[in-house]
Amino acid sequence: MRARDKAAVSALRGTLSALDNAEAVPVDETAPRAAALEASPVGAGATEAARRELSEREMEDVVRAEAAERLDAAAHLTAPAHADRAERLRAEAAVLLRFLDAAEGTAEGVAESA
User: Fold this and answer.
1) Which residues contact 67 (CB under 8 A, 6 or more apart)?
2) Tens digit of pLDDT for each residue in 12-63?
3) pLDDT tens across 104-114, in order?
């Protein structure tokens, strides 16, 4: 990363955003909304919602989905003009899959030592 590997930086930024989005609390469309300003919540943080906490498995699923999405997009870029973009998407997917492999190796090592 120190050498500014653009594929790794792009993959990790996109995946961090996807994880952040996965932690967001879904908006309940059926909940009544205040019609008047005076009926709205007041004070610092009054409109903040607690974020979901993802399990390790859910995080891995998000990372897998991000890698699969990149591989799928690369597979659809068949025109020679898009070869560079397709290769970059494959490189980003490889970065994410390496992180998953490393995480699985660490989890197996912990399980074996227990």
Assistant:
1) 92, 93, 96, 97, 100
2) 999 999 999 999 887 765 555 656 666 666 666 666 677 889 999 999 999 9
3) 777 665 555 55
Asked if residues 29 and 65 have their Cβ atoms less than 8 Å apart, the reply is no
How far is 98 from 63, CA to CA, in rounded Å? 11
Backbone φ, ψ for residue 30 (5° rounding) = -85, -10
Q: How far apart are CA 26 and CA 106, in angstroms?
A: 32
* Per-residue H/E/C for the chain: CCCCCHHHHHHHHHHHHHHHHHCCCCCCCCCCCCCCHHHCCCCCCCCCCCCCCCCHHHHHHHHHHHHHHHHHHHHHCCCHHHHHHHHHHHHHHHHHHHHHHHHHHHHHHHHHHC
Give the whole-angstrom CA distance, residue 44 versus residue 71: 43
83/92 Cα distance (integer angstroms): 14
Confirm if 74 and 93 have CB atoms less than 8 A apart: yes
pTM: 0.72
